[in-house]
Design brief:
The protein is of the alpha/beta class and 483 residues long. The chain has two domains: 143 residues, Leucine Aminopeptidase, subunit E, domain 1 (3-Layer(aba) Sandwich), CATH 3.40.220.10; 329 residues, Aminopeptidase (3-Layer(aba) Sandwich). 36% of the residues lie in helices and 19% in strands. The protein has 13 helices and 20 strands. Strands 7, 8, 9, 10, 11, 14, 15, 16 and 18 form a nine-stranded mixed β-sheet that branches. It has a six-stranded mixed β-sheet with strand order 1-6-5-2-4-3, with helices on both faces. The chain has a three-stranded mixed β-sheet with strand order 12-13-17. Strand 12 and strand 13 form a beta hairpin. The chain starts with a strand and ends with a helix.
Length: 483
C-alpha cells in the first residue's frame, strides 16, 4: 500500500473523515438529510458512520475527546483503522483519502499506520486466491501538520515492518540461513546499506564455537551477516550495534521440543534477525543520520547424528567455555558469539533482540517485550518511551547479579541454562557475559508471532521491533543534534 500526501480533499471518491465532533464535519456534509443522519449516529454513541454514493463511500470516524496519554491516543487510532477496514473491503475501496477534520496530525499518521499494518498479506504460497482478497492500494492523507518528510519516514518504517514479517512467515523449505543472508543482501542493495556475509569457512576461522555447535546437526551451513548504515552526516561518534537471533528453524536439537504449540511454528525463531533487517531497511530508506551496525548469526537447530549434546563443553568466540545443559537453549549460544564480535566496533550501546525464552512469553504473554540490561537507565527509558509510542511495549525485568550465580558450572566457565526459575533473566545474564560494552536484551518471544489474528498485527509474523527501534533511533539522532 502506498501512502501519499495531498493538498486537496477531493482526490479520491472514497473518503475516510477523522473528526472529534460534528463541527469538524460541516465542510463535508452535502445536505440536511446527511446532517441529521450523522447527528443521530453521534447521539446514539456510534463512532463510525457510513455514507454511500454513486461515486464511492464516505466513512466518518469519530474520535471522542478523552483524557488519555498521547501514546494511548495513537494506539486507539491504529485500532480504529483496523475496525473500519472491513467496510473498505466490503465496498472495494482500494484507494482512499483520509481527511483530518479536527484530530491531531499524529493521530492521522497512526491511523494510516493501522491501515497499512492491517493491509499486510503473506499470500506467496496460496495456489488459489479467495474470491474476495481485498487489499488497499493507496492511501492519500489530507491534513495540516503532516510533511513529506513524515510520509517518507512512515513509509520507510512500514515497509521495513512488512519485510520483517515476510522473513518470519517464510518456511525453512525456503528460508535457510544462506537464503536469509541472500534476502538481506538483496534488500540492502535496494535500500542502500551494505551487507557482508561470512560463510562457514570464515566462521570456522573466527572460531565462533557457539554458532558452529548449534549448526552441527544441520545439513545446511551457518551464516554470519554484518549490516552497516553509516551516512556521511552521522551524528554519533560511536556506533549502535543491533544483534538479532537468526535461528531459521528450531527443533530444540536433541532436547527435542513437543510438536504441538511449540515446534509447529518455530520458523519464527529468527524474528530477532528479521527485526534487525527490517530496521536497517527503514533507517536507510528514511536516511537517518545515525551510524548503526547489525549482526545476524544464523543457522537451524536440528538433532542430526553429529548434533551437539547436553554435557558438551563449547569454546566460544571470546575464548570462554560453556557447558551445554540443554540444546534447546541454542539462541544464546549463537548470540554470545555475535555479542563478543560486536566489541570490536567499540559501540556506545548494543541492543539485542531474540525470541529467546518461553519464560518471557509466559510472564507477559503477547502484550509486551521483556527487556533488561546493564546500559544506563536513560537508554532503557528511551527504549520504553518508544515502546509506548509504537505500542511495542517493554516490560523491564530486574538484572541483578544474583541471577548470574545460577549459571555457574562445575566443569566450565558457565552453563547455558540457569535452572527452573527466572529463566528469562538468567538467559539475559548469560548473554551479558559475552560483551564488555553497555548492553540491552529484548526478549520478543511473546509478541513475535501470532497464531491467531491480533488486531492490526494480523496472524503470523508481527514484525515486532522494527517500529520500536526506528522510533528509538530517530529520537536518538535528534538528541545528538540538540546536544
Amino acid at each position: 500500500m502506498k501512502i501519499r500526501l495531498s493538498q486537496t480533499d477531493e482526490l479520491m471518491p472514497n473518503r475516510v473523515i477523522l473528526c472529534k465532533d460534528f463541527s469538524g464535519l460541516l465542510p463535508y456534509i452535502k445536505n440536511d438529510q446527511q446532517s441529521d443522519f450523522i447527528k443521530e449516529r453521534i447521539a446514539a454513541e456510534k463512532d463510525v458512520t457510513l455514507i454511500t454514493g454513486k461515486q464511492g463511500i464516505t466513512v466518518i470516524q469519530l474520535f471522542r475527546s478523552q483524557k488519555k496519554p498521547v501514546y494511548n491516543e495513537l494506539e486507539d487510532a491504529r485500532r480504529k483503522a483496523f475496525s473500519i477496514y472491513p467496510l473498505l473491503s466490503e465496498y472495494d475501496a482500494e484507494t482512499i483519502t483520509v481527511i483530518n477534520a479536527g484530530v491531531t496530525a499524529s493521530q492521522v499518521l497512526a491511523f494510516s499506520e493501522g491501515l497499512y499494518l492491517t493491509n499486510y498479506r503473506f499470500n506467496k504460497y496460496r495456489s488459489k486466491k479467495e474470491e474476495k482478497d481485498f487489499q488497499l492500494k493507496e492511501t492519500v492523507l489530507f491534513s495540516e501538520g503532516i510533511t513529506e518528510e513524515d510520509i517518507i519516514a512512515a513509509s520507510a518504517v512500514l515497509e521495513g515492518n512488512a519485510f520483517s514479517r515476510d522473513l518470519v512467515n517464510e518456511p525453512l523449505s525456503y528460508l535457510t540461513a544462506t537464503k536469509l543472508a541472500e534476502e538481506i543482501v538483496s534488500q540492502g542493495n535496494a535500500a542502500g546499506f551494505p551487507v557482508e556475509v561470512f560463510n562457514k569457512k570464515k566462521i570456522e576461522s573466527l572460531r565462533m564455537g557457539g554458532l558452529l555447535a548449534v549448526n552441527k546437526g544441520s545439513i545446511d551451513p551457518p551464516t554470519f551477516s554484518i549490516l552497516e548504515w553509516k551516512p556521511e552526516d552521522k551524528v554519533n561518534p560511536r556506533p549502535i550495534v543491533l544483534v538479532g537471533k537468526g535461528v531459521v528453524y528450531d527443533t530444540g536439537g536433541l532436547s527435542l521440543k513437543p510438536t504441538h504449540d511449540s515446534m509447529d511454528y518455530m520458523k519464527c525463531d529468527m524474528s530477532g534477525a528479521a527485526a534487525v533487517a527490517g530496521t536497517f531497511y527503514a533507517i536507510s530508506r528514511a536516511n537517518l543520520p545515525i551510524h548503526v551496525i547489525g549482526l545476524i548469526p544464523a543457522t537451524d537447530n536440528r538433532p542430526d547424528g553429529n548434533a551437539y549434546v547436553p554435557g558438551d563443553v563449547i569454546e566460544m568466540y571470546n575464548g570462554s567455555t560453556v557447558e551445554v545443559m540443554n540444546t534447546d537453549a541454542e539462541g544464546r549460544m549463537i548470540l554470545a558469539d555475535a555479542l563478543s564480535y560486536a566489541d570490536r566496533y567499540d559501540p556506545e550501546l548494543i541492543i539485542e533482540l531474540s525470541t529467546l525464552t518461553g519464560s518471557a512469553h509466559v510472564a507477559v504473554g503477547n502484550y509486551a517485550i521483556v527487556g533488561m540490561g546493564n546500559a544506563k537507565q536513560e537508554e532503557m527509558d528511551a527504549l520504553k518511551k518508544s515502546g509506548s509510542i509504537t505500542h511495542e511495549r517493554i516490560a523491564e525485568f530486574p538484572f541483578w547479579d544474583d541471577y548470574a550465580e545460577l549459571l555457574k558450572s562445575d566443569i566450565a566457565d558457565l552453563k547455558n541454562i540457569g535452572g527452573r526459575y527466572a529463566g528469562a533473566i538468567t538467559a539475559g545474564k548469560f548473554l551479558e557475559k559475552f560483551t564488555t560494552h553497555p548492553f540491552i536484551h529484548l526478549d520478543i518471544a511473546g509478541p513475535a508471532f501470532n497464531k491467531s489474528k491480533d488486531n492490526y498485527r494480523g496472524t503470523g509474523g508481527s514484525g515486532i521491533g522494527v517500529r520500536l527501534l526506528f522510533d528509538y533511533l530517530t529520537s536518538k539522532s535528534k538528541k545528538y543534534n540538540n546536544e
